[in-house]
Specification:
The complex is a heterotrimer of chains A (about 140), B (about 120) and C (about 800). With about 140 residues, chain A is mainly alpha-helical. Helix content of chain A is about 70%, strand content about 10%. Chain A has one domain. In chain A, a hairpin with a 2-residue loop joins strand 1 and strand 2. In chain A, helix 2 packs parallel to helix 6. The longest helix of chain A has 28 residues. Chain A is elongated. Chain B has about 120 residues and is mainly alpha-helical. Chain B has one domain. Chain B is about 60% helix and about 0% strand. Chain B is elongated and about 75 Å long. Chain B starts with a helix and ends in a 23-residue tail after the last helix. Chain C is an all-alpha fold and about 800 residues long. Among the domains of chain C are: about 250 residues, no CATH class; about 80 residues, no CATH class; about 50 residues, no CATH class. Chain C has 32 helices and 2 strands. Classes of the chains: A mainly alpha (about 140), B mainly alpha (about 120), C mainly alpha (about 800). Chains in contact: A-B, A-C, B-C. Chains B and C meet through helix 1, helix 2 and helix 3 of B and helix 7, helix 24, helix 25, helix 26 and helix 27 of C.
Chain lengths: ~140, ~120, ~800
């Protein structure tokens, strides 16, 4: 699989897929998409990059250990449960905040951060699995 | 529609169970992978099938305007797919490691936990 | 919660558990002197209950409740009357000295902190038993005493005898606890309440209930096992394997009295029936005689005391079983006196063992000069046990003779049994308290001398209390005894208590006979010991041996069952699971005669058919694949077909997820498979193939029929409609599926992503475990290597 074309195109393809995965993640609340799907797309991107350029390159590219990313995601999801407690509402009650960036309304909400947490967990955990298996492969 | 899908699901279940009763690890793994699909389809069909209309509310409305597919089983299955995938990966690696360490892919020969001719348990205190 | 008054009882119930947590920490710092600090806890609890005494003795019954699970109406409530108050005072008062004694007795023991902890846990459990208002709460604390006593008896767990005794105590009292739970549930059923204060005022409801016999049997079983009644008496002497503080606490004043407490507690509503007044006195009487006779056989000080405890418990059950006021007065007094003198005597026996190095009564003698304080305490306690004036034991004996003589159904017969038992206990009291101290000095394994204050504080205080309680009988009676009698009989009791009998009656003569007979038996104790020993050896079998046989039988049966069920072949496990599944699928279908009707067959469009057929082809290809690659690719085909089916039926989210998962599955399958020389085909025998094929088809289509039956039922869409209606209105999301995942059912999702993370961890761990001989990979990711462009 280590053809020159594949190796050349893989980084761009992966970058594009990750961008797409974030798009899918963020549109999830209103259109088909969401953290699980976005996460899986990002994993595929890393898997492709790994097959083309080696596991070490992927590890370099994502800087953190994949499981740390997953753990951070879990923490983010768990934290997004909290804000409502301080507003004397039951835990997990969603909170919404609209801000304007250059005149465009942007909705910020606790379910969004929850979904980003889901995304990170899926990306981290499954990338970790895929990389571990690929690593064995390349030895 | 559900009836035909029920028969398809029956077929998938049968194949999955047949594979799971094999004594070869790989076949058992394939069986588990197929079983996940069968269960998800079962839940999906039990929530009734509706053609083509996804459960998404139109931009200019606050409630769905027409009959949409049932969103509840979808939400259940979506997470179930990811979890069954994680478990599949876990079983796969478990089987792989078992093969490496025990040198066999025959489940009948894997008897570390339940060795043949085990001694009687102690009767004292 | 306030710090005084009835409500503070909750603090008092919590305190032992706090002390249990502090025990090991303090012991690490202060060594055995931690006992002085820890003893403050039970002392404070004691003082707390003392402040309630004036109210209780004036006939007040306190109840208090804490809301526990308010949504289900479960409360944590306490019930305080004369009975529970006296018990609570005994538990905390004697507990204080037991803690001090344990400090001296286990001085320097490496696990002393743990020992303190267990003792306090037990204390907390015991307080819970006597204070609980709710029957279930009582049961939970009851079982907690069983468990903590298991820990205490098995404290010296390196010895097999200790382990055996601990298991025995746990099994016997635990089995009784199960009976008790059943009994409590029946009481709840019959009376309609689980709260003690309501049950105790329900009058004849339980006695008239058709469940009465069952309730009585179960409650009696619970009480008999806990209070070591014949034939369950054997665990109590065996429990002497425990360190002496445990014996002094559990087997004199607290745990074994729990059974008596229960009988006394239930007397107003369960007592005074033909069954009650026959069964309890008979078992109590047998236990009294068996305990006293077997006690005479022993040479070990602690075992002698243990058997006399069995005898005393028999006496208490016998008297409680009469449901007659006078007899109950005797029982209450005897219970009070017994707790004091037996606790003291156990501690004396422990001190002798500790200082002289042996507990064998034939190897002890002449210690009075070496251990004068212990000797004095022993004398006072033994005089009380022997029933001599002016001790509380004397008054108790008078009362119980009075009760036994006048009111028991069989006339003087019960009084005679009590007489024989008491005479033997008189003799044993002499043997325990006098034998080691009087006579010529005998060489002991250790050079005996007086123990430290921690060791003699308890015996001295308890035996002096026994003396004072007797001397100030009127005071004792008004404050402690009468309220308890009122609680046990269910009617107010206010007669005074006197040390000097008011008139000459049968009881006084019985007392004199007891003293004469007891003194005679004391002089002939060696002869009796030899005779009883001979008798016991002649019989050969006893409940103790029976217990061992039972346990052996259980282990052998368990082995047989395990060997039969767990053959070690995974294939047969899987088959068994599927057969059970088939039974559950088809039996209801045939039993109720509801078969799927296939009425709702609608046609599919041609493109739907296409993907159904592709799925079937993929399935077939997996089944009949000749090599790994075909199997993997076929699995992918099936997966993609399913993904398309999701898409066709309005589930784009599912479809995308399924696509990604299938892709990744194929990738990781390929990664693993290429490295393994695995056979994708199995070589099953033809008969196995037929069997598996038929079974798989039966179960598979059973599930299909189940689904068809479900679909034929009317569909309840209310939940889905709720989500659809409110998705945008309250959760501001148009994609209902996503809103359910991240908002409506967010907690589920949180759990699910945790599972995903944990699987990731588990897989990484599995991969990192190396086959034997290889070195483990470093856990940290390798340092990123910068390439030339990046530098």
């Amino acid at each position: 699989m280590n053809t020159v074309i594949f190796r050349t195109i893989a980084p761009y393809l992966s970058a594009l897929m990750i961008l797409f995965s974030i798009f899918v993640l963020l549109r999830g609340h209103n259109e088909p998409g969401g953290g699980f799907i976005g996460g899986l797309i990002a994993v595929s991107a890393f898997a492709i990059y790994g097959i083309a350029c080696g596991v070490a390159a992927v590890r370099r590219a994502i800087t953190f250990h994949p499981l740390s990313i997953a753990a951070a995601g879990l923490v983010l999801s768990a934290l997004s449960v909290m804000p409502s407690i301080f507003l004397a509402q039951p835990a997990m009650t969603s909170q919404w905040l609209q801000i304007h960036v250059f005149g465009t309304p942007v909705d910020l909400s606790t379910p969004m951060f929850f979904d980003i947490g889901v995304y990170l967990v899926v990306v981290g955990a499954i990338t970790s699995i895929a990389l571990a298996l690929e690593e064995r492969e390349q030895k | 529609m559900e009836t035909i899908f029920a028969l398809l699901i029956g077929l998938i279940f049968s194949a999955a169970l047949y594979l799971m009763m094999s004594n070869k690890l790989v076949r058992v793994l394939l069986g588990i992978a197929i079983l996940g699909n069968a269960v998800n389809l079962l839940i999906f069909s039990a929530g009734r099938l509706t053609r083509e209309v996804p459960p998404v509310i139109p931009v200019d409305s606050y409630i769905p305007l027409e009959v949409t597919a049932n969103p509840l089983p979808q939400a259940l299955i979506l997470t179930a797919i990811v979890i069954s995938f994680s478990f599949f990966a876990f079983f796969l690696v478990l089987g792989y490691r078992a093969f490496q360490d025990l040198g066999t892919d025959d489940v009948v020969e894997m008897r570390i936990a339940e060795p043949k001719g085990e001694a009687e348990p102690p009767l004292g205190y | 919660m306030p710090l005084t008054g009835v409500e503070a009882t909750f603090w008092a119930m919590l305190a032992p558990f706090v002390a249990a947590a502090l025990g090991p920490v303090l012991t690490q710092r202060l060594k055995h002197n931690a006992a002085w600090v820890l003893a403050v806890f039970p002392a404070l609890i004691f003082l707390h209950f003392l402040t309630l005494v004036p109210g209780v003795s004036s006939g007040e019954v306190y109840t208090a409740a804490l809301e526990w699970v308010p949504t289900y109406g479960v409360t944590f409530s306490i019930y305080l009357d004369g009975l529970s108050t006296l018990f609570a005072l005994l538990i905390s008062g004697i507990g204080t000295f037991i803690i001090l004694y344990a400090g001296g007795y286990l001085k320097g023991h490496p696990q002393q902190g743990r020992f303190f902890s267990f003792l306090f846990l037990f204390m907390g459990a015991m307080l819970g038993v006597v204070l609980a208002n709710n029957l279930i709460t009582l049961f939970i604390f009851w079982e907690l005493t069983s468990i903590t006593s298991f820990l205490l008896i098995g404290f010296d767990h390196l010895r097999a005898a200790s382990r055996r005794s601990a298991i025995q105590a746990l099994v016997v009292t635990g089995a009784g606890g199960m009976a008790l739970l059943a009994g409590f549930l029946l009481i709840g059923l019959a009376s309609g309440s689980m709260e003690m204060n309501e049950i105790l005022t329900s009058g004849d409801v339980l006695r008239d209930s058709p469940l009465y016999v069952a309730i009585f049997t179960l409650i009696a079983l619970g009480a008999f096992t806990k209070s070591a009644q014949f034939p369950f008496h054997f665990w109590l002497p065996n429990a002497m394997e425990a360190p002496t503080p445990v014996s002094a606490y559990l087997h004199s004043a607290t745990m074994v009295k729990a059974g008596v407490y229960l009988l006394m507690r239930m007397n107003p509503v369960l007592g005074d029936t033909a069954l009650w007044t026959t069964v309890l006195p008979i078992f109590g009487g047998i236990t009294l005689i068996v305990g006293a006779v077997l006690g005479a056989r022993q040479k070990d000080l602690k075992l002698m005391l243990a058997y006399t405890t069995v005898a005393s418990l028999g006496l208490l059950v016998m008297l409680t079983g009469t449901s007659a006021e006078l007899a109950i007065k005797g029982a209450v007094l005897y219970l009070f006196g017994h707790s004091l003198f037996k606790g003291a005597l156990f501690m004396v026996a422990g001190t002798i063992d500790h200082e002289a190095g042996t507990r064998d009564v034939t190897k002890l003698g002449g210690l009075r000069q070496a251990m004068p304080i212990t000797f004095a305490a022993a004398c006072l306690a033994a005089l009380s046990m022997a029933g001599l004036p002016p001790f509380i034991g004397f008054i108790a004996k008078e009362m119980l003779y009075d009760g036994a003589w006048q009111v028991l159904g069989f006339g003087p017969g019960w009084a005679l049994i009590a007489l024989v038992g008491n005479a033997l206990m008189f003799a044993l009291a002499g043997a325990v308290a006098l034998k080691p101290f009087i006579g010529p000095k005998v060489e002991t394994p250790k050079h005996a001398h007086e123990g430290p204050v921690l060791l003699y504080a308890g015996p001295v205080f308890l035996s002096v209390t026994g003396l004072l309680a007797g001397v100030f009988a009127a005071f004792t009676g008004d404050l402690f005894i009468n309220p308890m009698i009122s609680a046990v009989t269910g009617e107010s009791y206010t007669y005074g208590l006197y040390l000097i009998p008011k008139h000459i009656n049968a009881a006084l003569f019985l007392s004199l006979i007891t003293i004469a007979l007891g003194s005679f038996l004391f002089t002939k104790l060696d002869l009796i010991r030899a005779q009883v020993d001979k008798l016991v050896k002649a019989i050969g079998w006893g409940p103790d041996k029976g217990f061992d046989q039972l346990i052996t039988l259980v282990v052998k049966f368990a082995t047989l069952v395990t060997r039969t069920v767990q053959t070690g072949s995974m294939v047969s496990y899987v088959r068994a699971t599927f057969i059970v599944l088939a039974v559950f699928l088809y039996v209801p279908m045939f039993a109720t005669g509801t078969f799927p009707t296939f009425s709702a067959i609608q046609n599919l469009t041609f493109y739907e058919w296409t993907f159904v057929i592709i799925a079937v082809i993929g399935l077939g290809a997996v089944l009949f694949a000749v090599n790994r690659l075909i199997a993997i690719v076929s699995l992918g085909i099936l997966g993609f077909a399913v993904a398309i089916i999701y898409l066709l039926y309005g589930a784009p989210d599912l479809s995308f997820t399924q696509f990604m998962v299938e892709t990744l599955s194929v990738v990781i399958l390929a990664l693993v498979m290429t490295k393994l020389d695995l056979q994708p085909r199995d070589f099953r025998l033809v008969k196995d193939r037929v069997f598996d094929g038929v079974l798989a088809t039966i179960v598979g289509f059973g599930l299909a029929f189940l689904l068809i039956s479900i679909v034929e039922l009317p569909f309840n869409a209310s939940l889905s409609e709720f989500y659809a209606q409110y998705s945008r209105v309250i959760a501001h999301g148009r994609n209902i599926v996503n809103v359910i995942i991240v908002d409506f059912r967010g907690l589920d999702t949180l759990g699910e992503i945790t599972v995903v993370l944990v699987t990731g961890l588990a897989i990484l761990a599995l991969i990192r475990v190396r086959p034997k001989g290889e070195k483990a990979e470093p856990l940290v990711a390798p340092e990123p290597v910068r390439n030339e462009e990046g530098a």
